[in-house]
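anyone seen this seq b4? input:
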Amino acid sequence: MPGFYKDDLPSTKYGAITSISDKVETLISIFISGKRPSGSSDPYALRRNLNGVIIIIWQFEFDLDLENIFEELLEYWKTLLPNLKFVKKEVLNDLIEFSNQRIISHLDELLISKDLIKATCFFDSSAEKKIINILDLKNRINTINQLKGKPNFSEIQKVISRVSKLAQNGNLKTTIFTCNDYVNPDLFEKECETKVFKFIKELEEIVKLPNWDYFQLFSLFETNSDNLNELFDNEKGVLMMAENPELRNNRLNLLGLVRNYSLRIADFTLFNS
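predicted toks r here
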């Protein structure tokens, strides 16, 4: 179970884990054999099979790393059946792509808005593509849906979007979350830069906490939205694209770090205004 989208789920966690194990084993074995779904052709009902896995994880809120499970099972099959010829990396990449397609399809079935799906299921083209963490995705979507009810959400979203778009002029990777080696406070010319630097330090500290959540993270953006806007003020702000390359890079890295922490929640540039 479930056999189809609105079918009954297993009634216990034990039953749910057993169902996931059975479905994942089937999925792996058929992908290894090269008989993967293509177009409308899906003779082994693998889409329905993986849909069942996704629904169970979503409803039971299991914190399962599907990609790690796939990788370990592929390695197990290679060891168990050394004469079975398949390229592990290729099969894993196909499973990653197939899984993400089915996860997004699941969100469509839940009637989640297109812009929210895009904003929470974005893929960084500069990073290695991974399977979306289903429980984390659910938490982020629930967070955004609640935050959208706040009267100032639109204004906060706008300033985060402005920061994120300008940060694209820099070279800071989206996987960087520390100021060390990337931002030099000695190069600051205005107080607004110091304020944003302190904001990033607060972000660094909050994600070190064992039980931090996305509401706490967004709350810091909410508290510091005026400081972010001040960066662009005609009098109090600074010129981001300064002629001095050292100054320009320092400022763009400052923006890049703010963007990177906002991406922990969603890509705010993808929400409809």
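The chain has a mean pLDDT of 92. DSSP finds eleven helices and no strands in the chain. kinda curious what u guys think
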